[in-house]
Amino acid sequence: MPPVPPPRDTIFAPATGRGRAAIAVIRVSGPAADAALLSLAGDLPEPRRAVLRDLSCGGELLDQALVIRFAAGASFTGEDTFEIQGHGGPATVSALLNALGALPGLRLAEPGEFTRRALEAGRIDLLEAEGLADLVGAETEAQRRQALRSMRGALGDAAAGWRKRLIRARALVEAVMDFADEEVPTDVTPEVSALIASVSAEIAEALAGAAAAERIRDGFEVALIGAPNAGKSTLLNALARRDAALTSEIAGTTRDVIEVHMDLAGLPVTLLDTAGLRETQDPVEAMGVARARRRAEDADLRIFLQAPGGEGPPGDLLQPDDLLVASKSDLPGAPVRADLRISAATGDGVEVLTAAIGDRLAERAAGASSVVRARHRRALEEGATHLSAAARWLARGEEALDVAAEELRLSTRALEILLGRVDAERVLDDIFAEFCLGK
Ligand SMILES: Nc1nc2c(ncn2[C@@H]2O[C@H](COP(=O)(O)OP(=O)(O)OP(=O)(O)O)[C@@H](O)[C@H]2O)c(=O)[nH]1
Ligand SMILES: [K+]
Ligand SMILES: [Mg+2]
Fold this sequence. Notes:
This protein is of the alpha/beta class. It has three domains: 10-109, Gyrase A, domain 2 (2-Layer Sandwich); 133-209 and 371-433, Four Helix Bundle (Hemerythrin (Met), subunit A) (Up-down Bundle); 216-365, P-loop containing nucleotide triphosphate hydrolases (Rossmann fold, 3-Layer(aba) Sandwich). It is built from 14 helices and twelve strands. It has helices spanning 33-41, 90-101, 113-120, 126-137, 141-151, 154-178, 189-208, 210-218, 232-240, 283-298, 350-365, 374-395, 401-419, 424-433, and strands at 10-14, 23-29, 51-57, 60-70, 81-87, 106-108, 220-226, 258-264, 267-273, 301-306, 323-326, 340-341. A hairpin with a 2-residue loop joins strand 3 (51-57) and strand 4. It starts with 9 loop residues before the first strand and ends in a 6-residue tail after the last helix.
């Protein structure tokens, strides 16, 4: 006899954020959900109907709340589920959570556990779960749009289509192999080659937009660089609208890289304030300068600041798209070669600079594909590698058909890993660690 699976816990968690609020939503899912609702509300309402109920525990009234019940098979998790839309005060939420925790078979959910159950029940697939995690975490407009596309299956649909074509390609190759010594009815090589070429081209196109998509998800890095006292930290504070970095008239004030996260024209941006670039005998400042160079090199965009009479741009750090900014435009001094002029002290030109940064990043963001995670990119790169190997073996003719078929199988497998149809367990913990409680 197969071992009997242990009875599944019924899980509950607040689905809305902590703190004072008009309404808090608490979600409950699992086999004991109906019994729990019956005990709290005194009856079992019809599914998918919002009903007002007095919720009590041991004769004590806890809240008057809206309750919605979802039956197994017609809920997000696939299980019996109900939601309480109660009053949002922290004490009310605590009282409801305590009451739920005291009921038999109920326990607090782990982060992401509702979504995990939805995935296990086949209500959503791995890529949709990832999109959902991104949507819950989305802080800017570009992230919201991208996550919503992921959640609605943008990459999943494409990958499923590629997989189908590659399975056909492999079936064709294997059919020829089965005819080994007989007359092959038709030459299938042109169709197989065409299938491989078209899928390869589409994967290559998706991969070309991966870097931009990953940036939209994780944020673009923009580094402020320049000589000491160019006004980098003062500009950072002006852009962040808060005192994020120390500023002073002493050259070499900033040492560590200071990061400020912000929403710039709908795009997620991490601004980096860095140590002023110069030769220095001070070992700690020298470490700061080395760090500044490293981070500036890795950043998506560099803003080089030059104050009147200040040092010009270093030839080795700047790239064609970077911005040259003349700083402290309120001060007299010989004009320097620059894309624009700003004064962080008066605020002059700061908005123009923000717009220029936004334009440059928006141009890059426009090239984004639906390959939003490193996991997706690696799976597609692997698939593409096996596809080009398959194409090479196919070109060798009949004696290499079995190797070509094997390479086609491996590329299909890479797509299945992407889709979460194989090997999903391995990535689940990473994905669900990102979720907040109650999702
Ligand atoms: N007049 C004027 N002074 C400025 C402006 N921006 C910064 N300053 C002054 O210039 C000095 C240096 O500014 P910081 O922001 O510390 O310069 P920094 O580039 O971060 O310097 P390090 O961290 O030492 O590399 C401070 O005294 C600022 O008040 C500006 O737009 N106009
Ligand atoms: K300074
Ligand atoms: Mg500074």
